[in-house]
């Protein structure tokens, strides 16, 4: 079968489109015929060798989000990040990680759902414990995780304040943000004004910005961040918790998100399709900081 792998850490050029043996599932595993995988920023960091906390074996196949079929059954899943991924024609997945794919969208586009939607859900529900009537600031809301976080927070009955650039302002507002702050031209802390119950940081913030966000959180509140390289600060004296989020597979949560999508209560982030043979070009865009939106990769 065809797959993209890297045999050493390094620049996007280490990615090779090559012939490899089709994997064989073991106990508790299922062979998935890949319709599409998805590119995520962590794929870039793992390939570059900047995320050694995830212990992978070389050569490694990236792509931990998958949409495909199992004996004709459409499935999606969030795969273990330390195992070979789905940037291939076939992938072996833990059977427990696979759920029925959404019926309301194209199967290839569904590859863009699992890890980013789970990140938003777990950040808001598991870590922040967001409830109706609370105020939440979501920074970096114009990104893919932000697309789902704003929708889920608004559906939970929270007052959503979001930061976004002018190019994504309308989309963030349409997703359910009550207030949208242009972080490129506005002092975010000053614009928020009244304290919030939750800060959900999805942006590559500086230590100074994170400290300022901490000051926005009311006593007893929480700040959750997805920036593993910059942990969330806390303030024990005020009872403010700081949580650095690491997304995990959860089939029940993913099933719930698929059901929301099929019910029209959640919209899919726009996707761009790229051929598997061209995956290195996507990594190059990510490495250069020019990648925008969600990319799904078709074998």
TrEMBL record:
Example of a GO MF term: oxidoreductase activity
Pfam families recorded: ADH_N, ADH_zinc_N_2
Gene3D superfamilies per UniProt: Medium-chain alcohol dehydrogenases, catalytic domain, NAD(P)-binding Rossmann-like Domain
Descriptive protein name: NADPH:quinone reductase
């Amino acid at each position: 079968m065809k797959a993209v792998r890297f045999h050493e850490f390094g620049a996007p050029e280490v990615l090779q489109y090559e012939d490899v043996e089709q994997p064989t599932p073991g106990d508790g595993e299922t062979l998935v015929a890949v319709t599409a995988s998805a590119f995520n920023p962590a794929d870039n960091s793992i390939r570059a060798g900047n995320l050694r906390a995830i212990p992978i074996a070389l050569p490694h196949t990236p792509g931990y989000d998958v949409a495909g079929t199992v004996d004709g059954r459409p499935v999606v899943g969030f795969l273990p990040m330390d195992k070979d991924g789905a940037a291939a024609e076939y992938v072996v997945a833990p059977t427990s990680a696979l759920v029925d794919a959404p019926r309301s969208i194209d199967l290839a586009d569904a590859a863009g759902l699992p890890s980013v939607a789970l990140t938003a859900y777990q950040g808001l529900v598991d870590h922040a414990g967001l409830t109706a009537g609370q105020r939440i600031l979501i920074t970096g809301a114009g990104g893919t995780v932000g697309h789902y976080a704003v929708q889920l927070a608004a559906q939970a009955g929270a007052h959503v304040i979001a930061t976004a650039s002018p190019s994504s302002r309308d989309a963030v507002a349409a997703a359910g943000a009550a207030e949208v702050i242009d972080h490129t031209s506005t002092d975010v802390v000053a614009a928020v004004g009244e304290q919030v119950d939750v800060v959900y940081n999805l942006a590559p913030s500086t230590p100074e910005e994170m400290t300022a966000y901490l000051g926005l959180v009311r006593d007893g509140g929480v700040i959750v961040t997805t920036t593993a390289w910059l942990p969330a600060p806390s303030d024990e004296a005020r009872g403010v918790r700081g949580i650095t989020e690491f997304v995990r597979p959860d089939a029940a949560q993913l099933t719930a998100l698929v059901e929301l999508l099929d019910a029209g209560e959640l919209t899919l982030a726009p996707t761009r399709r790229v051929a598997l043979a061209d995956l290195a070009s996507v990594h190059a865009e990510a490495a250069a900081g020019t990648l925008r939106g969600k990319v799904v990769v078709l074998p």
